[in-house]
Amino acid sequence: MSRLSQSLVLTLLGGVVLWITALTTSYLNYVKPGFRPFLLAAGVVVLALGVVGLVQEWRRPYANAHDEHVHEGTGKQAEGHDHSRAPQVGWLLSLPVFAIVLIAPPALGAFAARGEDAPIRPPATTGSYVPLSAEKITPMAVGEFIGRAWDFRERTLTGKRVRLTGFVVRSRKKDRWYVTRMQMSCCAADAIALKVAVRGAAPPPDDTWVEVTGTWVSPRSRKIPNGTVPPEMTAIQVTEIPEPSEPYE
Amino acid sequence: MPDRVVVESSTEVPPPDWGRRSAAPPVTPWLFALLATLLVIGRLVLTPLLTAPVLQTWATVFVAICVQALPFLVFGVLLSAAIAAFVPPSFWTKALPRNPYAAVPVAGAAGAVLPGCECASVPVASGLISRGVTPAAALAFLLSSPAINPVVVVATAVAFPGQPMMAVARFAASLLVAVAAGWLWLRFGRASWLRVPSRTAPAGSKWAEFRDAMRHDLLHAGGFLVIGGITAATLNVVVPRAWLTSVADVPVLSAAVLALLAVVLSICSEADAFVAASLTAFSPTAKLAFLVVGPMVDLKLIALQAGTFGRAFAMRFVPMTFLLAVVVSSAIGGVLL
Fold this sequence. Notes:
heterodimer; A: 249 residues; alpha/beta; CATH 2.40.50.140; 5-stranded mixed beta barrel; B: 337 residues; mainly alpha; 0% strand
């Protein structure tokens, strides 16, 4: 890679990172909200490095730039030593740019959450849960609902109305569909699907974002071990909503 | 090959058209404008077509790995470029003990303070050897610095929230492997196997050197990160979970598989923890093997080492390091994780 192409790739990469981080919220499709300052800093450094290089190339006399192309033939052995030329593998850094601009990857949805037999890890529970109000509807994270549902000792969900927010994953079974939220510990690559089976309501299409108000259905048998089947709820009301800006839990 | 840089320095001799601005229009701004326009057109025309769920999921995972790793990559490259440009060579020979057996652990531990990307570690180690440092000590530094430096430790802790022992185990296992490999080389290695590289003269100002080193390292490491991201995303989306879990359930096999995966993927050590964390089906010990092997042995490092120190060296050093890394990380994983 000549200096010009190095600078071009870095400018595009830095620009795109700043675009998804500073100008839009689409970085939330990939990483956690708290990661924003680091991404901004990295984007600024990469963009600056690229722009400085571009300006230098632009200012350089034409003959000099031409000179570099003559040397380009021996550039393959330059790996690791001569720093003015980078190895060809650097071109690959333009792939994330193309992926972000051309595919515009959305937050993980029904496709990633499918696979009904995929094991669901019980979310880590910290201490015991706060008792729920009997009159009001309690908005709740899907992960918390699953945690409460699996907490056989306390049974805090019995008879309580709760509201879950998530996207729809349809089931092969006719009588249910899943309200689903992806949970990531670090970035979208390690996301796992948290699913709650919804019964008593017609299934919206896959990937529709919904608010489901309902009550927990306690499992008929306690013999089913935690984490092998999603907990169930009976829907009272299902409302379609636009996708939240923070799609992950 | 090491004296190739000397040839390059002939550009310091003023070229015939020195200072004369060419009549040909500079191509840079036009090229940039063309690329930007193509991207905008592509966004308008192609994006509505590229909506297959497989492709979108793949792209989300791929972009997530790249985006998450980028800040760590930038920071690591920034520091290693600063060291390459601003720390004088004489510092190293003064800092290390004279006894080679004592110098190996000191150099290995020095990796904990001196951040260096693994792609940077090969040129740094060859620079150390050519400045008179015992080869075994330089090799211990070569192995330890990409694996146990603060940036990597923080990245590992971030990638495994709630599992602080992962970062600890990675640190301990990597340092152990580096020191053991250094001592083994000192005891059994022969000078004839190692091609001692000649020292390269720095060209241009410190700042220009710094910028060039950074751009180079960023593209080099970033390119291999992209390869790792592509492979991890493909594994995530294409390979059925059931296959991965069936391999992951066999203890010894899973560690060996992830160690081999680390060799093939060649991810930069600043970024590999995020890829390891995404392999949710595997046991912590297998992930540890991935994290210990990755910074020490991988395809790009083998290429770099063979190019820098000679093939006779790489043929012996690489398998030795790989075996040590798998054995030590299995043992430490069994104790700590």
